[in-house]
Design goal:
three-stranded antiparallel beta sheet; alpha/beta; 14 strands; 12 helices; 32% helix; 347 residues; seven-stranded mixed beta sheet; disordered N terminus
Length: 347
């Protein structure tokens, strides 16, 4: 089902970056933009896709960045939301499970808005989740689009369980085992070309999902599973750099890797500079807490704070005993009470 790139739009900007964000991830968004400016440059266009309508604070703060615009095409936003709704309506149990959890409609519908970048203002683009810091030039990603239509650089292929439903009997019939072991990717960062998914192709993909393929989708990662299905099923020319770069040139990207070392506010993996650092698995509330002065510990926290307050005079002073983000119950009773009290104080 290989599909060529839509060539009908001639007014797009050659290169740019997309970020999905709202005020919930405000601190991460500012840190990410600052890292882009420092490690790529101030001339790289950035378009922020709103996760939902909670964007007032973020829109006001991003006025200081001349290269930043907001995605405001409501028709395209609606198009992709309707596409997601159609897909999840065909899933045999997603809505029942979500309803039991008290979720109305499609779980994390805003996450599906990342697909708007395929209809956006950039001919070639890199999409980024807000919980990322850019550590290096994106030239390698953009240059790879000379020979491919979709580029990733991550190690998600080592864990299929967060991409497709591994218990589905239909999964081996939809994708061969060798593809499932090598082609899946993380939807948090990818490079691609505009127009990859025409309306005709989306209709075809939706029809195949409605015919039974939706059973393989992982409804706890609703946007990631759909994008993997779209890329793999359509036969798009995709490449994961983590599997094709020479071993000595590859780097990690995940915050759970504790062997990176910092030099001049960028991270290195052995002798190679990371392309990006993904704070995957660290909830937005922990970034909010540390930016409000709570002494929350998470990997590479000080690097995050450097970029978050790069344009401000000082970062907030962290108060109280350190509490690990992943083990808040391990502190002393006094530490836990102190943490709770600080959370209740007005900001």
């Amino acid at each position: 089902m290989a599909q060529g790139v839509d060539k009908t739009i001639e007014t797009r900007i050659a290169r740019g970056l997309y970020i999905l964000a709202n005020d919930v991830v405000f601190d991460q968004l500012i840190a990410l933009i600052n890292s882009i400016e420092r490690n790529i440059g101030r001339d790289m266009p950035i378009c922020i896709v709103p996760y939902d309508d909670r964007i007032q604070r973020s829109k006001l703060a991003t006025r200081q960045y001349q290269q930043v615009q907001w995605f405001e095409d409501k028709a395209i936003l609606l198009k992709w939301e309707q596409f997601a709704e159609r897909i999840w309506r065909s899933h045999p149990m997603a809505f029942d499970v979500w309803s039991q959890r008290g979720i109305e409609g499609v779980n994390r519908m805003g996450m599906h808005r990342r697909f708007c970048c395929f209809d956006g203002p950039f001919e070639r683009f890199v999409y980024l989740d807000a919980d990322i810091l850019v550590m290096n030039s994106f030239d390698r990603l953009f240059d790879s689009l000379d020979d491919h239509d979709f580029v990733t650089y991550d190690y998600q292929y080592k864990d299929l369980s967060h991409v497709f439903d591994v218990s589905s009997r239909r999964l081996p019939d939809v994708f061969e085992s060798d593809r499932l072991e090598t082609e899946i990717f993380c939807a948090g960062l990818y490079a691609a070309k505009a127009g990859l998914f025409t309306d005709e192709l989306l209709t075809e993909l939706a029809e195949q999902l409605e015919a039974g393929d939706s059973e393989i989708l992982y409804f706890n990662g609703p946007d990631q599973t759909i994008l993997n299905y779209m890329v793999m099923k359509s036969g798009i020319d995709a490449i994961n750099l983590s599997q094709h770069l020479p071993a000595e040139k590859r780097t990690g990207c995940c915050v759970t890797s504790d062997h990176f070392f910092e030099k001049d506010h960028v991270l290195l993996d052995s002798a190679e500079q990371l392309t990006y650092l993904h704070y995957i698995g660290i909830g937005a509330k922990f970034f909010q807490q540390v930016c409000s002065g709570q002494n929350i510990l998470f990997p590479y926290r000080d690097l995050f704070l450097y970029y978050r307050y790069l344009k401000e005079e000082t970062a907030p002073a962290l108060v109280g005993p350190a509490v690990r983000y992943d083990r808040p119950d391990k502190g002393t009773l006094r530490q836990r009470i102190s943490c709770k009290v600080r959370q209740l104080l007005p900001g």
